[in-house]
């Protein structure tokens, strides 16, 4: 498996998060104001110091389709470690993220390369940083609510929060003149205040990233999604289905990442 494919798998693995179950007992007539809704959502964020889990998934694009397994470990605000295997017990590669860089070790081709977050942002076609990637993996909001005004509304008994209001989005979709900036849109379960989908859309570039989360389970009194469906639409279409199992919280562990001297360093 080549460098580009390993990078593609990793970018998809970045877009992992949580959502709440789609059960509602109360009929709502309107959503809270955006400021209040954002405050409630942030209080419901997944909070942890250490996290590990087994992962399994399937990747599809126009050229290929394959299944994989692996594991992920996170030390909050410090390190993220991912191991990927083709499902036969043999490790394909490892990824280590620190606050400054991303390191890839391809055991299949015996190569190692280092990537900047700027390079990852180009592959994902969306700005990425360590903190944003961490939020994606644990299902917290991936946008900076303080950087711009946000709006809220009620749709199909779910709360919506977005960097554009409902009328603006509908107008831009119909118009020939599209805005060349990312629009953030999240759907929120009113009962738990957990995000069950997040979307980054650029109408000008016809670029859309949608992550939907389901199968929530409680671990240490925290809700976490154990199934994730991700799709990216640009000039190509790609999708990833991902499942968590054996989730372990707040247990200290190591992040093994030692590159053998025989591996080729790719620049």
Structure description:
- This protein is of the alpha+beta class and 267 residues long.
- The chain has a single domain (3-266), classed as outer membrane lipoprotein receptor (LolB), chain A (Clam), CATH 2.50.20.10.
- 18% of the residues lie in helices and 41% in strands.
- It has 5 helices and 14 strands.
- A 14-stranded mixed β-sheet has the order 7-8-9-10-11-12-13-1-2-3-4-5-6-14.
- The longest helix is centred in the N-terminal third of the chain and has 12 residues, at 3-14.
- The radius of gyration is 19 Å and the shape is globular.
- The protein starts with a helix and ends with a strand.
- The relative contact order is 0.22.
- Mean pLDDT is 86; it is low at 15-24.
User: What average pLDDT do the residues reach?
Assistant: 86
Strand content range = 35-45%
CATH architecture: Clam
User: What's the number of domains?
Assistant: 1
Secondary-structure map:
Layout: H1 3-14, H2 34-43, E1 50-60, E2 65-75, E3 79-85, E4 93-97, E5 102-106, E6 111-115, H3 117-124, H4 130-138, E7 151-155, E8 158-162, H5 166-174, E9 183-188, E10 195-202, E11 207-219, E12 222-233, E13 237-249, E14 264-266
Parallel strand pairs: 6-14
Antiparallel strand pairs: 1-2, 1-13, 2-3, 3-4, 4-5, 5-6, 7-8, 8-9, 9-10, 10-11, 11-12, 12-13
Which terms summarize this structure?
267 residues, alpha+beta, 14 strands, globular
Summarize the structure.
18% of the residues lie in helices and 41% in strands. It is an alpha+beta fold and 267 residues long.
């Amino acid at each position: 498996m080549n460098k580009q494919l390993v990078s593609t798998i990793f970018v998809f693995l970045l877009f992992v998060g949580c959502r709440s179950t789609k059960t509602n007992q109360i009929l709502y007539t309107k959503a809270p104001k955006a400021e209040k809704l954002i405050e409630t959502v942030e209080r419901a964020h997944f909070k942890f110091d250490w996290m590990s889990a087994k992962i399994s998934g399937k990747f599809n694009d126009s050229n290929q389709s394959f299944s994989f397994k692996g594991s992920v470990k996170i030390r909050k605000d410090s390190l993220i470690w991912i191991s990927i295997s083709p499902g036969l017990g043999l490790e394909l590669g490892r990824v280590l993220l620190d606050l400054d860089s991303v390191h890839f070790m391809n055991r299949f081709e015996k190569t190692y390369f280092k990537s900047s977050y700027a390079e990852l942002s180009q592959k994902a076609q969306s700005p990425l940083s360590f903190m944003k990637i961490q939020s994606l993996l644990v299902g917290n909001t991936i946008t900076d609510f303080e950087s711009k005004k946000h709006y809220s509304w009620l749709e199909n008994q779910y709360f919506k929060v977005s960097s554009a209001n409902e009328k603006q989005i509908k107008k831009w979709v119909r118009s020939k003149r599209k805005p060349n900036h990312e629009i953030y849109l999240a759907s929120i379960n009113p009962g738990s205040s957990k995000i069950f989908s997040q979307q980054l859309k650029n109408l000008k570039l016809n670029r859309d990233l949608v992550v939907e989360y389901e199968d929530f389970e409680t671990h240490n009194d925290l809700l976490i999604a154990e199934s994730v469906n991700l799709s990216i639409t640009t000039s190509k279409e790609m999708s990833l289905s991902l499942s968590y199992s054996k989730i372990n919280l707040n247990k200290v562990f190591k992040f093994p990442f030692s590159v053998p001297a025989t591996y080729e360093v790719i620049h």
